[in-house]
Amino acid sequence: MLESLGRIYNSLSTLPYLMLVILDLDDTLCNTWEALRLALIRLTPIIIMKRKFKLIAYFLTKRYEKLESIRDIHLLDFEGIFNRIMEDIYRDLDKEEIKEMLDLFDRAFFANLKLYDDVLPFLNELKQMKAKLALVTDSASSWQRRKLEVLGIQRYFDKIIVSGDTGHTKLEPYNFYLATKMFPKEDKIFVIGDRDDTDMKGGKAIGATTILVKRGYFKGRRAKYADYIVNNLYEALEVIKGELKA
């Protein structure tokens, strides 16, 4: 596989394009949904011990799905989202109980947060191809930047745009336009992410080639805005190769 990536680079190294690749973080580069799931499983015994059965029902019935389209949720970290959920379910909250659950969740989440196997080869090849890399991601700034620190990939990005910093989420195209303004000379733009109605829609708004990676929480959703649908970042690199040679 690495030899294949090397051949791709050699064939593209002389092309005259200035390239910008805008990447999503969660479930595109790292297994956020899986880490969340495992952390919640780790939290379940405490939830049962504290008799928070309504909270268990909340997750079992997937009531969290309604949060996907709420703008403010995309500006929060897990603590903020969890507090919002608890306030919605319970009238009286014990702050010490909440803190205990959040501390356990935090440890379990970051213990299970991992890069996908294709991420480092993909990022290294893009840097060798002289691409500019911008990360556009939703959530609280401290939460996303901590993920980057734990994952060890912050150094790959020329710019990092977080909704918690800008006040704009990927439910609107503002942060994608912001990325293009930061790199006005780049004439080939690609947007790569796992969510069609944010990453792909935002990419379309700025005239980028959009590449949907089918993995993570949104894997089973129908795509409307993606130019290409791939299973991994190796395939995404093949798409970039083809577009640059076209």
TrEMBL record:
InterPro entries: HAD-like_hydrolase, HAD-like_sf, HAD-SF_hydro_IA, HAD_sf. Its cofactor is Mg(2+). It holds the Pfam family Hydrolase. It comes from the Archaea. Gene3D superfamilies: 1.10.150.520, HAD superfamily/HAD-like (3.40.50.1000). The keyword Magnesium applies. The keyword DNA-binding does not apply. Keywords: Hydrolase, Magnesium, Metal-binding. GO terms for biological process: small molecule metabolic process. GO terms for molecular function: metal ion binding; phosphatase activity. PANTHER family: GLYCERALDEHYDE 3-PHOSPHATE PHOSPHATASE, N-ACYLNEURAMINATE-9-PHOSPHATASE. Belongs to the HAD-like hydrolase superfamily. This is Glyceraldehyde 3-phosphate phosphatase. It comes from Pyrococcus horikoshii (strain ATCC 700860 / DSM 12428 / JCM 9974 / NBRC 100139 / OT-3).
